[in-house]
Every structure is written in C-alpha cells, then in structure tokens.
Amino acid sequence: MRPEAAPAHLFLPGPTPVPADVALAQALPMVDHRGSAFGALMAELLPRLARLFGTAGDVAVLPASGTGGLEAALVNLFCPGERVLAVVAGAFGARWADMAAGLGLVVDRLEVAWGEAASPDAVAERLVDQPYAGVLLTQNETSTGVLQDVEALAAAVRAHAPGTLVAVDAVSGFPAVALPMDAWGVDLVVAGSQKAFALPPGLALVAVGERARRAVEGSGRRRAYFDLRPYLKGDLPYTAPVGLWYALERSLARLEGEGAEGRERRHRLVARMVREGARAIGLRPLAREEVASPTVTALTLPEGVAPAALRAAAGRLGAAFAGGMGPLREVAVRVGHVGAVGPLDAVAAVAALEAALAEVRGEPADGTGTAAAVRAWRGGGADGWEVEGYRKEGVRT
Fold this sequence. Notes:
Blueprint: E1 9-11, H1 20-25, H2 36-53, E2 58-63, H3 66-77, E3 83-88, H4 91-102, E4 106-111, H5 120-129, E5 134-138, E6 140-141, E7 146-147, H6 150-160, E8 165-169, H7 181-184, E9 188-192, E10 203-208, H8 210-218, H9 229-232, H10 242-258, H11 260-280, E11 284-285, E12 296-300, H12 307-316, E13 319-323, E14 332-336, H13 343-361, H14 368-379, H15 387-393
Parallel strand pairs: 1-13, 3-4, 3-5, 5-8, 8-9
Antiparallel strand pairs: 2-10, 6-7, 9-10, 11-12, 12-14, 13-14
Helix pairs in contact: 2-10, 5-6, 11-13, 11-14, 12-13, 13-14
C-alpha cells in the first residue's frame, strides 16, 4: 500500500506519528559516519541520552528495533546456562522470556494475570531460595495496557538479591514515563525509537549502568552484531543510520524542552481522556486505573462486536487502532496514546472509536464518548497543565 493511501491518523502503540521537524531532519545532507561531523553529533547526543535515562553510565544506540535491544541485553549480560527470573504479565514479557530461553539461559517465570501488575512481594519471594544472575522486567506491557511499578520491583531485587542484575524492557513506556535507572537500582534499560521518542522505527537505545557494564565487559560469551562493548567505548562498529541520528537530535530537544514531569503529565491526561471516552460508549479498559498505562490502553469490546470489524470501520474513517494480542485477540482493541500526542488527539481517537462502533452496530453515533473525553480534559487534569506552552514547543505539528 502506498503511504498516501494509508490511514491518516495512527492511534497505535507504535509506530507513532512523527512531528514534521523530526521527519525533515532526516533529509539533511548525508555525511561520513566515521567523519568529524558525525563524531561531533555523537559526542553531543550520547551524554544527553544518559541524562534522559538517569544514569552515570553509557547509552548504546543500535541500528535495530527494540527487540534487537532486548537481544543485546541478554547476550551481553548473561551466558548460556545462567538462570534468570522473568516477570511475565503479557505478550511482550513472554516474548522476552522466550528469547532468553532460546539464547540458552535457564528461565524461571513469575506469571502475572493479564491486566494485572506484578507484586514486589512475589518477586522477593522468588529470590529468597534461588540465586539468579538477573531479573527481567517489562516497564509497560503493551499487550494489556499495564504499567509496572519498576521502582518497587527493582527495590525488592536490591533488598533480597543485591548481586542480581535488573534489566528492563522500557520500549513502549520510556521516556513518556520516567525511569531514573541509577536512582532506582536498575542496571540496564532498553527503549525504542518509534514509540515515546516519536521517531521513525530503526533505533534501539540501550542504557547500561556501572554494574551492567562490568558484566558486559567481563562476559566470555561470544557476540557479534549486538556486542555492546564497542558502543560503550564510544565507537560505532557498523554503519550508523545517519538520518535517524539527525532526527534523534530533534527528538531530544523536544523531550528536554518539555521535561520529564510535563511529559508524564501530558501522557496521563491523554490516556485518561481516551479511557473515559471509551467507557462512555461501553468499551472497558482491561487494566485497573491504578495500574493503567499512560501510553496504551487495551479495551475489551461489547459482546457481538468483533475487533476486526471495529478496526476495519475505523480504517474507513482514516484511523488506525491496534488489535488485541494473545487471549485478547478476539475480544479487544488497543489504543496507543504515546509520543507526539495531546488532548485533541485523544478527542479524535474517541470520536473514531465511537463512529466505528456505531457503524458496526448499524446505529447513529450521538457523541457520548467524545463528550466524556472533553469533560475529562476540562476537569480531569488540564488545570495547571501548560497547554499553550505545549503548542509553542510544537510537540504535535
């Protein structure tokens, strides 16, 4: 399908809309990725990325998707035969656990019901009698719309197994949701460019703390494409996607201008608007509000409404929503509200859901959901939020 025929509005967990100035940055002249100009760009951006992740360590920017970053974490931190504990609360936690097992690790799973958050006590209990080389956490479970309390989970690991490494899949949550890794005792964090960074797909950002760096450098495991050691020395072992680095500079400027608090507040407001609007038309968020993700919401549909039919109807209106995953495939859709999004995007998402649902049911849409989203905007978080400043920053263009 040609891009001009694609849906105009992406309400996905990723890829997300890319602001115009970020997209246009990729059209800057190509340079030698081994030359002085690109070296200066790297020297400027890497410390800024480390500050964003909240680490005194280093950040490796890999030419890969987020999944590549997760594989890099596993093959650099652990050797075949080592035992890790994977906290699995949905499809992406399960994917990381499966990847670890496929790479030769012994994987114990702490299974959490879909739609629920992991308990720090349950993690601590698993650590009492069994030594682990690492614990694998998923900050934001994209399949269920649940945000895990990484701070509390990491604290449980630090308290009961201080020698165990904590690695976090933050691909769909960070930097929409802060994750100050050094302050929280997290050793490694993986993020992806195509979600909260509001960049095109193609970059995996792997932040490596001091303990993780020692593990990377001390490992005897053979590595190739995803060997982090050259990156941690400030080298590029392979050709960098130069255009994406240009775009990354623009993305970082936006993130720094808004700040962590403003960014999380904006995402939580937009998420609340989507959920309130959805509830008003009979779509039920899977996650309880106290553990609900600021970046993606999984909505279970009324009986008789097929996700495929709802998404097809939305597509005819020019809106793209994600399907459910795993056991939710036939009963849910997912709405992404992450990256360069604001309240008007939430109103548009709810309006598209409402109109699509009405089409599937053969009923007129009466604006109930849209009105509920606007009420949530006016009374549920907009006070004190600098909407005008957000516009001046141009987060959505």
